[in-house]
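Subject: Sanity check before I submit

Could someone independently write out the structure tokens for this chain? I want to compare against mine line by line before I put it in a report. The sequence has 181 residues.
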Amino acid sequence: MSTGTIVLNIVFLVAVAAFLFFIAWLMWLFFTGRQHRGREQAVEFGDFPALPDDPGELIVGPTAGVYSGTSRAENWIDRVQVADLGDRAACSASGYTHGIAIERRGASTIWIPVQALVAVRTTNRAAGKVMTADGLLAIDWALPGGTALTTALRADAKADYPHWLVAYPGAQPTTDPDAAE
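---
Independent answer below. Compare away.
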């Protein structure tokens, strides 16, 4: 091998190593940033309601689907990252007389007490997810500290949505007049 070939190989290997280091650095920034955001939000939001021993009588569901996420009610892109609330997961949502339980596979169950409910509605965007018109079931609620949140899920069968819309007071068909068709 000539000296030029050896130098070229070394330069190539250094460039590949630098590129791989750059990708690893970006991934590290992503994960540590998400953890930092979750810690800040945990302090701001306080404790989330825990699933009670007696959720009450089943009134709607269970509805199978995918939990899309929870975001601030006033900003559908601002996802909540506290604990594992930012993780999308397959779920089963059930409505009870005392609240709504969203049981996520591989993640914690989300409990929304009926006293905290603002509205159950459909929308085309929530928690950073965009769908066709009325593609997501959105549950608007408030934490004990007053922070307004929207929790969204995409049901496997959109035919389940009307049952949710009539199961709770204040249900609305949609709050998004510009929903995509």
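---
OP: Matches mine. For the report I'm noting this point. Strands lie at 58-72, 75-79, 89-96, 99-104, 110-113, 117-123, 125-126, 129-130, 136-142, 148-155.
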